[in-house]
Amino acid sequence: MSEKRENRFVKDLIAQMTLEQKIGAILTLGFAGTVPGSRIYDFVTKYHCGGLRLSCDTRIFGNYVDPKSNRSVVQVAPKNGVKYATAPVCTASEYKAVLDDLQAAARKRPLSIPLHFSYDQEGGTSADFSFGGVNLFPKPMGVRAMNDPKMAYEIALAVSRQSRAVGFNWIHSPVLDVNSDPRNPEIYTRAYSDIAEEVAEYAEESCRGFQEGRMIATGKHFPGRGHSNVDAHFGVPVIDVDRETMMSRELLPYKHLIEKGLLPSIMIAHSIFPAFDSDNIATVSKPILTGLLRETLGFDGVITTDSMTMGAVATRYGVANACAMSLEAGADLVLMKAENELVEETIAAIRSFVEDGRISQEELDKKVYRILDLKYRYGLFFDHNNHEEIPEAVIQDKAIVNLAKQAARRSVLIGRDKEGWLPVGKDEKVLVVEQKVKAYNNFQWHSGILYENCLKYNPNTVYQETDYTWDEKDKQTVFERAEEYDTIVVTNYFIRGKLCNQEAIEELIEKVSAAGKKVIVVTNTPYEEVSIPHNAKCVVITFATSPENIKVTAGTLFGEVHPEGVWPTKYHA
C-alpha cells in the first residue's frame, strides 16, 4: 500500500483537543429509536462522542437474552421509563431531519467535529434502515447465490446511495467471515460463502460499491468467526483452528482487501483464537490487534470493536474495563451502544488507562488521527447537511427499484423438490403457516406478506400466523388446521438469538405426509443443521424475509416466477 500523505487539517485539530474531546472522539455510542431524548444530545455535547450507532426499529437497546436458557446475559436496558420498545415509524425525510439536527449539535461543538452515523444493513432482517419504502436486498449469501460478483457492487452502491441520502455514513459491512461450520448460529447467511476465495471476490465488489457511494465500509469479524457453533452475543466462541488454516482461509479476504486498499475500517471478533492468543478474546488481544492486524497484515485503517455489551466480552471482562483494554491492545474506536450508566463508566475507565500510562498520549493521538482522517477523506467535515438530496427521490429511483427486484429473482432458489410438488396448483387448498419475524409493521413490510402474495395466485389460500418460535398452542393449532388442506406452506426462518421450529416441523411433515398431504418449507438459509428439516421433501430458500424476496418466493411456489439463484456453498443440505 502506498504511504498516505499527512493530513495537516486533522493534525491541527488534534493539537487543540482536550483529553475529554479525544476520549469522546474514539467512542461510538448508541441511539435506539427515531426520537432522540436529552441523553443522546448529552452524548454529543457533554461527552463529545465521535459518532452514534443507530438502531431505528426499537426505542431501547434490550438486554442480551440467551434463547436457550431465557436468561439475561448482559443488562443494557436504561432506566428511562420506556415500557413499549417499538419505535415510531417515520419517513426517510423525517429521520434525515433527526440526524441533521444531531449533526448540527455536533457542528456547534468547539472544534465542529462531525458525527459518524454507523449502522447494520447486511441484508434481509439485518436492516437498521428498514422504513420509508427503502429498497432492501438479500443477505450476503443471497448475493453470492446470484452467481455474479458485479451484483455485489451494484447492491452496495444502491445501499450507499439510499443511506447517504438520509445521513448514514458508516456501514458495518461487508461480512468477511468464511462460514465453514454449517452449525454456525451467528454468521450463517451473513457470510457470502464457505469458500474463502469467493468471500474475497464478492466482498471486493461490495467494497468498491461502498467506496463509490462514499460509505465507510467495515470488514468484520476479524480474524474470522465462521468456524464456530457458538453465538458471541451470549457466550465466548473459541475458534479452534490452526494458524496455517487461519492464514489461508479466515484471513484470506482480509489480506486481499488490505492489499487492494479497499478496507477503511475493520471490526474485531468477540472470540478466542488459540492460534494467535489462547488467553484473551480478540477484542482485547494485543497479539491479534497490534501483532497480527497492524504488523503482520499491514493494516493502517481504523480498528473498531464490535458492540462491547455483547455477552462474550462483557461477562468476561466487564463492559467499561473491556472498552479500555481493547484500546490498550490496539483498537481505535469503541462501539458501546448501551444508553445507561455504562457510558460514564466507560469514559472513566478509558481516562484511567490514559492517566496511568496504559494508553499513552501518543497512542491516543494516533487513534484520534486515524478516525478523523477517515472522516475527512470521506467528506464528513464538509458535508454539512448530509447533502441536499431528497431521500424519497433516491429511494424511488427506478434503477434502484429494478435492482431490488432483479436481486430477489436472482437469489431465491429451490433447494429441494424431490416429489415434483412445484408449482403448487392454483385450485389446491393451501394453508400458509407464517412466523412473525420482526416488529416491522408498515405497509411495505409486515407480518403475513408471504400469505398476501400467495393469495394473489390462489384464492383458496388461508393464513395461520405463529410466534417466531412456536409455543404449544401454535403447534396444536398448526397440526389441527393442516388436516384440512392439500398443501401446507410453512416458514422456518432462522435469525440469530432465536430458536426456529425444526423439530416441530419435522413432526408436522411426518404426521401429514401419512395422509397424503404436502408440506413445503420456506426458509432463509441453506443449512439443514439450522433451518431445513431433515425430512423435508420440498424447500424454497429465500435468503431474505424482506418484501421483494417474499414476492419472488410466492411466485416460485405457484410457478409464476422462475428463480435464478444457484447454490452458494460447498456444503449442500
Would you mind describing this structure in some detail?
- Helix 3 (38-45) links the parallel strand 1 (27-32) and strand 2 (51-55).
- This protein has helices at 8-16, 19-25, 38-45, 92-107, 140-144, 149-166, 196-212, 243-250, 252-260, 286-296, 311-317, 319-329, 342-355, 361-377, 391-395, 398-411, 449-455, 472-482, 502-513, 547-557, and strands spanning 27-32, 51-55, 64-65, 72-74, 116-119, 170-171, 218-222, 265-268, 272-273, 277-281, 302-307, 333-336, 413-417, 430-435, 461-466, 487-491, 518-523, 538-541.
- The strands form four sheets. Strands 6-5-2-1-12-11-8-7 form an eight-stranded parallel sheet. Strands 13-18-17-16-14-15 form a six-stranded mixed sheet, sandwiched between helices.
- The chain contains 20 helices and 18 strands.
- With 573 residues, the chain is α/β, with parallel strands linked by helices.
- Helix 6 (149-166) packs parallel to helix 7 (196-212).
Task: Briefly say what this structure is.
This protein has 573 residues and is α/β, with parallel strands linked by helices. It contains 20 helices and 18 strands. Helix 11 (311-317) crosses helix 12 (319-329).
Give the helix/strand layout.
Elements: H1 8-16, H2 19-25, E1 27-32, H3 38-45, E2 51-55, E3 64-65, E4 72-74, H4 92-107, E5 116-119, H5 140-144, H6 149-166, E6 170-171, H7 196-212, E7 218-222, H8 243-250, H9 252-260, E8 265-268, E9 272-273, E10 277-281, H10 286-296, E11 302-307, H11 311-317, H12 319-329, E12 333-336, H13 342-355, H14 361-377, H15 391-395, H16 398-411, E13 413-417, E14 430-435, H17 449-455, E15 461-466, H18 472-482, E16 487-491, H19 502-513, E17 518-523, E18 538-541, H20 547-557
Parallel strand pairs: 1-2, 1-12, 2-5, 5-6, 7-8, 8-11, 11-12, 14-15, 14-16, 16-17, 17-18
Antiparallel strand pairs: 3-4, 9-10, 13-18
Helix pairs in contact: 6-7, 6-16, 7-9, 11-12, 12-13, 16-20, 17-20, 18-19
